[in-house]
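so i finally got all the pieces together for this one. its two components total, 452 residues if u count the protein bits. some of the lines might not be protein, just check the labels. i wanna see the whole assembly predicted at once instead of chain by chain like last time, that was a mess tbh
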Amino acid sequence: MWNKSSEAKPTSSPNKEVSVEAPKSAPIATSSVVHAAAPTHASPAVDTSRVGPGLRFKGELSGTSDLYIDGEMNGNVRLEDSLVVVGPNGRVQADIQAREIMVHGSLTGNLFATERIQLGRESRVGGNLASKHIQIEDGALFKGHVDMDIRKTAARPTESVAVERASSNGDNGAAGITTQSGSSEPTELPGAQAPVALSAAPPSSVAPATLRVTRVAGDKAAS
Amino acid sequence: MGWMAKVRTADPPGSPSMSGRSKDFDSQTAASPRLSNGLKEFLWLASDTNRGTILDLGPAWQATLTFFAEKGYRITSDDLLRTWWAFLTGEEERLRSLGINAERPTKDALAEQFLEDSLQYPEGSYNGILMWDLLDYFEPALATRMMVRIYDMLRPGGVMLALFHSRPAERFHRYRVSDGQTIEMVPAASFATQVRVLQNREIQDLFGKFRSSKTFVGRDQLREVVFLK
């Protein structure tokens, strides 16, 4: 059911956008953005982009979609108006800027959220937190600074991490997305409603500087 | 039996050393509040230092974080006891993998090795440090070295709150701040073993470089000591 990624139209944008496409056989969200209220780690929202278990991502993510990371990620995430959730299987080494950040897995990096940061009871976080509202559940393991006066920290940009250019050893090209063998198919989570999967752009000889994640509801409707 | 053989961990074998902390706390047993004159003194002295930065060497608690954030402090959380026992567990596993003839490092060497990666904060970076009862759980070799490091981390005029058991603790607790004069003792799974009961003279020796100290002795045999740099 996930083999539709080959139908994703390569974009001609110089930014080499990576399209995010919902599986055809699954219920499809309309083109209007559906913002679920704070999806938990067990049920990412319909319009949430996913790095699922078994996926490894290296590089910088930016855009407007919410993001659910339950695989491995290394780099930078800049989704200023979005919700970023690190699931229980997530292993993340990245600085994250978002509207709201929830961590239930393992994360090393600095977190900056304009609204809220939540560390779940099973989370393991090493880094600095900056947000107006920070919630640490009993049981969370956290080591780092906490700053709840984001007037000071808002001006502190996250240092950009250069995208690791894909090597020729089978990594999936430009975007720096690598898929571990036999695990490219996203795992359905209980209660998940048609999770939107990341599909990598075709290999390109020119590696992009950043990877932008956008939803392509129009493409889905057309297909 | 060697020193490191005392290492106990709440984690199942093979699991990451930091995992499973949520099992550490007994949700069935309520945290017990404790009126703390030491905390009152700590806050009073810390208020002289322009609402700066606090280092909490216990686990990260929402209550503690909120309390200090609302007072305008910036807080750093570093669960040093857990890090230390995770370190010892790792060392024990490493030695086991090397075989029975592997040379065991001395306590001094272990303490040095641990501090190479821990408590790496700049000098004078904190206005206040919450030590809780960690020193009861650290070997003298580590405690002595750690206090040198911690003294340097405090700004002049900085203040530290430490707790000491007057007799072996009946139960392992972690601590959090609930308001300006109350700390909560949270029963926890005992992943660490109390090493010793420090006598007053030993405490004075450990904190000899500090300008002054004030001790509050509770009926529960817990001494609260506030040190001023």
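The helical segments of chain B are 37-46, 62-70, 80-98, 107-117, 140-153, 200-206.
DSSP finds six helices and nine strands in chain B.
anyway lmk what u think
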